[in-house]
Design a protein that fits this description.
InterPro entries: TF_ENY2, TF_EnY2_sf. With about 120 residues, this protein is an all-alpha fold. Helix content is about 70%, strand content about 0%. Helix 2 packs antiparallel against helix 5 and helix 3 crosses helix 4.
Length: about 120
């Protein structure tokens, strides 16, 4: 978690219904390797740092405050806030952060001989 309690979204390990068996196998292998090598935490740290530098965390925090204010602090739960701002938060992740993350994942897959 970040200092403000917000954890950047990381794709769920639940398989998509339309995902092919081969894709699911690759996804699971990558997930397992990311965890076992410690790369998952390094990747999260990199993403978190880039999001902080871009001001994204502050924007999301402000969006959360606005959401809570619009609903009334006594009428909203943490789950309500997460559901209310997650889509907007994900859609505002800077392109540079997405590109750097994708590049790092590609390098990780190449290093571990994982082909798509």
């Amino acid at each position: 978690q970040t200092s403000n309690g917000f954890r950047p979204y990381v794709h769920s390990s639940k398989p998509n219904k339309g995902m092919t068996a081969k894709r699911e196998e690759i996804r699971q292998k990558v997930n397992d390797l990311l965890t076992s090598t410690g790369e998952r935490e390094k990747l999260r740290d990199m993403i978190e740092e880039q999001l902080k530098k871009s001001g994204w965390n502050d924007k999301v925090k402000m969006h959360c405050k606005e959401f809570i204010k619009s609903k009334g602090v006594d009428n909203v739960s943490v789950d309500d806030v997460v559901m209310g701002v997650s889509a907007a938060a994900r859609s505002t992740v800077p392109k540079e952060v997405k590109a750097a993350t994708l590049e790092r994942l590609k390098q990780f897959m190449a290093k571990n001989n994982i082909e798509i």
